[in-house]
Amino acid sequence: MDTPYYQPEIETMKRADLEALQIKRLQNTLRIARQSPFYKARLSEAGISPDNIRTLDDLRRIPFTTKNDLRAHYPFGLVAAPMEQVVRLHSSSGTTGNPTVICHSQHDLDQWANRVARCLYMVGLRNTDVFQNTSGYGMFTGGLGFQYGAEKLGALTVPAAAGNTIRQIKFIRDFGTTSIHAIPSYVFRLYDVMRELNIDPRTDTRLTTLVIGAEPHTDAQRRKIEESLGVKAYNSFGMSEMSGPGVAFECPEQNGMHLWEDSFIMEIIDPETLEPVPDGEVGELVLTTLDREAMPLLRYRTRDLTRILPGECPCGRTHRRIDRFKGRSDDMFIVKGVNIFPMQIEKILMQFKELGTNYLITIDTINHNDEVLVEVELSDLFTDDYSQLQGLTREITRQLKDEILVTPKIKLVDKGTMPQSTGKAIRVKDLRKNK
Amino acid sequence: MTIKQLSVFLENKSGRLNEILHILGEADVRIIAAMVADTTEYGILRLITSDTARAYELLKANQVSAQQNDVIALSCQSTARVFAHQLGCFAQEGLSIEYMYSFSIHDKAFVILRTNDPNRVGEVARKYDLSIITEEELLRL
Ligand SMILES: [Zn+2]
Question: Is some CB atom of chain B closer than 8 A to the CB atom of A417?
């Protein structure tokens, strides 16, 4: 009989058992990590040995690892296995400074593929599916990561790679593709070109399941994808430092991504104090690998902001869920002692239909006081009445104050004058740094 | 009874009014009356034009925040005494004037105004015999 779980014994493991498994694997990971020049020094300096880490709370005594550590010990300073066991590496493009390199043993690759297969199975893919991967291949982990995972599942896997939309659509039609992995903006591109070719994806293709990730998107965009293509679309989270895709993935409930806690320990910390935040509050995601032998990473600061969704998921999986990403911790700013993330402000602004989607936050010192100015574009003018415009700014101010605990100044501006919402727009200008 | 007015959000930035008029000018939209009211941060430009729907679409296409709405136009003699009498009629009936602007051709004045209760304007006009003019009449000027 078809079960909803790829590995029921792991996916629905009791929390206590899962935590015991994490401790056991953490101690093993520490033993392995000590074989690398980097962790050998780092751990002995901190007085950490596998035997004195006995509970998950003890984990907090281990120093964090950062991207800078990876760069400073480029390329192999964190490799813990003998090089003859290393079979593959993935490297970031390294546009600033040294690239980051992650090395894998055959065991690491197998476990990675297993996690991706588990994700795909979770959203209903089986060995009868045809899975087309539109990721770039090569160094980018979304290519080979999904390739091996889908093959492990037994699906017919089409390494279409990125680009050439006409050819992608031909493959979808000719091979009877049922599932695609793509970034959300590319899904919209595929849809537009299909319409130009007079192809209705709902009736003229066999598509049922889309895997979308690697690019921030809203639930509304997901719903739009689902409606236009007549599919279900699931959010995927991975990062090359954590091997690639398959770190966390949505289940059929589509409410948060289960983070595979048999393979990673997750912590959510305050990026400023580095202390854990209570469950449900936003902070920086910190991950420790539990099942990697060539290059384990301990308490790696991802810089990604998210929160743990409290409560159990109706799907029966016991691995906790994380929310959609709320931005990068590098974007966080502190005003009057309060940590503020641009996404908190964005979330409030997006609830006003009178406003457009673009905004800019400026922090400046005015008369020895830190002040937050939020400039936001008006959408169409909704009134001819000043008092209503003023009422709008008052209401935005009130709601923002409730959220960020600081009273911002709101300025309504013309459409098209703020940084565009797509891509890596600069949303925060902190003029205090220049003083 | 009412005529179409175009209200345009005007960020307090030099050259912005000019940009907006330029967009309308390119399409040969005729401006019959205009008024700018502003606060320190932004203003609202109010326009009566020869083709409000088209002007609105043009502004929208150029990413300008605008709204079409309805106002009343009256015609009367352009003396302060007549103005005072007209506004007095509305006050008498408990209507307040949210804003007004006017223009004159020779001794004839045209007053564009918005009250706090547009539904009662007709009734007041009839009662006091005020001359409300239609959009067609205004465009023929
Ligand atoms: Zn679930």
Answer: yes
What single-letter amino acid sits at A372?
V
What is the fold of B3-68?
Answer: VC0802-like (3.30.2130)
Cα dist from A112 to A80, A179, A291, A329, B81, whole Å: 18, 20, 9, 26, 87
The nearest CA of chain B is from the CA of A338 a distance in Å of 28
Question: Total structural domains in chain A?
Answer: 2
- What one-letter code names the amino acid at A231? V
pLDDT band at A418 (very low <50, low <70, confident <90, very high): confident
- In the numeric block, the tokens 């509304």 are attached to A220
Q: Indicate the DSSP class of residue B141.
A: -
**How much distance in Å is there from the Cα of A175 to the middle of ligand 1?**
31
What's the rounded Cα separation, in Å, for the pair A80 and A296? 7
* Arithmetic mean of pLDDT over chain A: 92
Are A323 and A414 in a shared domain? no
In terms of domains, do A69 and A164 share one?
Answer: yes
Question: How much is the pLDDT for B39?
Answer: 72
User: pTM of the entire structure?
Assistant: 0.73
pLDDT range class, residue A427, cuts 50, 70, 90:
confident
Residue-by-residue DSSP string for B79-100 = SHHHHHHHHHHHHHTT--EEEE
> Do B67 and A389 count as a contact with CB atoms less than 8 A apart?
no
Cα distance between residue A254 and residue A223, in whole Å: 11
**Helix, strand, coil % over all residues of chain B, rounded to 5:** 35, 40, 25
CATH number of the CATH domain containing A376: 3.30.300.30
**Identity of the amino acid at B90:** F
User: For residue A314, how many other CB atoms are within 10 A of its CB?
Assistant: 10
For β-strands A369-378 and B66-77, DSSP reports them as unpaired
Question: What percent of chain A is predicted at pLDDT more than 70?
Answer: 97
β-sheet bridge partners, residue A57? none
A378 touches chain B (CB under 8 A): yes
Assign residue A268 the CATH number of its domain: 3.40.50.12780
Q: Do A414 and B114 touch (CB under 8 A)?
A: no
Residue A68: strand, helix, or coil = helix
Q: Both A243 and A384 in a single domain?
A: no
Last residue of a domain, one of A300, A330, A360: A330
Looking at the domain B71-140, which fold is it? VC0802-like (3.30.2130)
Distance (Å) from CA A119 to ligand 1 centroid: 11
Contact predicate A239/A322, CB 8 Å? no
| Measured CA distances, A285 to A202, A248, A271, A324, A330 (Å) | 37, 12, 9, 12, 12
Best CA proximity match to A262, nearest among A299, A234, A289: A289
- Single-letter amino acid code for the residue at A397: T
